[in-house]
Amino acid sequence: FDRLETRTFSIISHVDHGKSTLADRLLELTGTIPQDGSNQQVLDKLKVERERGITVKSQAVTMVYDYDGPRDDFISAFDDGFAPKPGRYLLNLIDCPGHVDFSYEVSRSLSACQSALLVVDATQGVQAQSITVFELAKQKDLAIVPVLNKSDLPAADPDRCALQMEEILGIDTTLPGQEPLLISAKTGRGVDSVLRALVERTKPPPGVEDGKLEGREGPGFRALVFDSWYDQYKGVVSLVSIADGAVKKGDRITSCHTGKRYEVLSLGVNSPEMIPTDVLRKGQVGWIIANMKDMSEAQIGDTFHLSSEKVEPLEGFAPTVPMVYAGIFPIETTDFLKLEEAIQRLALNDRSVTVQRESSMALGQGCRLGFLGLLHLDVFRQRLEDEYGHAILVTAPSVPYKVTWRDGREEIVSNPIHFPDDSERKGKVTLLEEPMVRGVVRCPEEYTGEIMQLCAEHRGEQLDVSFPPTASAIRSVQMTYRLPLSEIVTDFFDKLKSCSSGFASFEYSEDGYQASDLVKLIFLISNTVLDSLSIIMHRSKVLYNARAWTKKLKDIIPRQQFEVSIQATTGSKVIARETLSAYRKDVTAGLYGGHYERKLKHLNKQKEGKKRLKALGVGRVQIPTEK
Ligand code: GDP
Ligand code: MG
User: How far is the CA of 150 from the centre of ligand 1 (A)?
Assistant: First the structure.
């Protein structure tokens, strides 16, 4: 066994520009996977990713590349321990998600790389996320290899795209080593130039080689844990990038984070299946299975080192702040512990999710989870349903509000249940603030009017309008808005897409808090608070919603043998009221469209095909939660 020179890189791009397709071609060209088209989107392993066509979790895969020509069968290259050969390289591809909600994971993946392939669709040009991910990569000081993809399409305009790379990203594409590579990930044209460029244009990982592996006298072994998961058969698996030294089977290692000691039971690389090896060396990316009992021991961002040595921990990852919260409840209340366990297991794999227990009078015991954005929530929900195997209830998303009490105490309230209503806050609260975002909308110019109206309806304040150059002949407009986060966690995306015929793209980032006249709207049914339906909103919207919602509730609650009152209150006064008279014919109205109907829709979400009613347990009134 000996070392091969290594390159560790990532592929970054705007969504749909061809990142996953290029990854497949690279794997094929290096013989890592068969070239028969049977392995599509190999990196997007998780089911949820395949279904949605987006990459969520980071994946790492190791390839062996012979710069001087095609090499023998891949598996035999492993069998002879990547036998060193002139011009043979080990390439580590770390895939990372393209969506802005997952920039935490992007940043984490990029930390383990020295370079990034910036893939730009030559028919679309540089788009919003191209800029976001490019900037993240620059922050990490990575070498950028610009790649223009989809050159097989007639609409491809590489010259114009190269110009955009210069003007928007500041890449001097005329410099040797910075010229964009023109490829088609679909047909495979030019893909070999990408592999060559990785060798020629990018550097091997820094760090100290292990001098004497056997003698244990080399420099300290250090590995950064950048992902971990639980495998049903193998137990806790940690994905690591070896910063210094080497580690082999049987070594005793220690976690810097907990100080606990383990024995390395097995280790290896992903290629793309898990392939055991004898040793992992500086610069390699691979997995380690140690005798860890619990997922909580494999902390992402932790440093492993040999128990016999003393080292400084590597720079870990800063925790992130959730932007969107939702309550998750089991349909059968007896299943809470199983649900909580499934949530905890998933959350360990995704440290950007926060978990707290929550109990609702209406829904019983559940968990309140914090997410980075709406898509993040949605993907987590889907994974949870797969993992847990039962239907779950997800409450409407809410955002963290800031309450300043008279004694000067500031409190972040992420659950509407704990938000002070009008009567509770009298004389006690000095300031209410809501989280804001800075959002950038890009769309063809003809939709400008619709988008401006939509943003105004969502309390947006326009900050900037510009007309960025595009590769296509259609002029596009870019508008920057300051918007309350609460306004975009409901149906903003759907509306944006429908009012622009699907052409508008939207990206947002946090933009602090702003004082706001906020009200908690509470619903009562036969004088019992339906707590999980409480919602916080701007005062200007309260009356309209109170009326619309009491009407809606009247429609969806079946008549009972007694009269039922439905009220909406702000805590100090009832602002809307409906009365459901005793028995008539059963009414089951559908729930379609509209702002607040989404809230109920969320509450109502149940496993498809399962015709079941869930009694919300409010007084004696039965509320169907079936769609
Ligand atoms: P990602 O979102 O960046 O991972 O993009 P994908 O790799 O999933 O590609 C998005 C779409 O573009 C898919 O339908 C691909 O088949 C298609 N695509 C990717 N590369 C090419 C290419 O070089 N030429 C053409 N014509 N289509 C491509
Ligand atoms: Mg993809």
Answer: 7
Q: Name the helix (H) or strand (E) containing 367.
A: strand 364-371
153 lines ligand 1 (CB under 6 A): yes
Taking a C-beta distance cutoff of 8 angstroms, is the pair 302, 243 a contact?
Answer: no
**What share of the chain has pLDDT > 70, as a percent?**
81
Q: Is 155 in the pocket of ligand 1 (CB under 6 A)?
A: no
Nearest partner of 122 among 98, 146, 93, judged by Cα = 146
Which residues are CB-contacts of 345 (< 8 A; sequence separation ≥ 6)? 230, 295, 387
Q: Is 149 in the pocket of ligand 1 (CB under 6 A)?
A: yes
State the DSSP code for 203: P
Q: Do the interacting molecules here have an ipTM over 0.85?
A: yes
CA dist list (Å): 211 to 216, 217, 245: 9, 7, 8
The pair of three-digit structure tokens given for residue 574, joined into one six-digit string = 């009832």
- For 247-296, what is each residue's pLDDT tens digit? 999 999 999 988 999 999 999 988 878 889 889 988 999 999 999 987 77
Q: Which helix (H) or strand (E) holds 193?
A: helix 191-201
Q: Which residue has the tokens 């100080």?
A: 259
Q: Is the CB of 189 under 6 A from ligand 1?
A: no
Contacts 24+ apart (CB under 8 A), 333-341: 333/364, 333/365, 335/390, 336/364, 336/365, 336/366, 338/388, 338/390, 339/366, 339/367, 339/388, 339/390, 339/392, 340/367
In this structure, which residue's CA is closest to atom 6 in ligand 1?
Answer: 18
Stretch among 35-44, 49-58, 242-251, 561-570 having the lowest mean pLDDT: 49-58
- Which ligand is closest in space to the CA of residue 14? 1
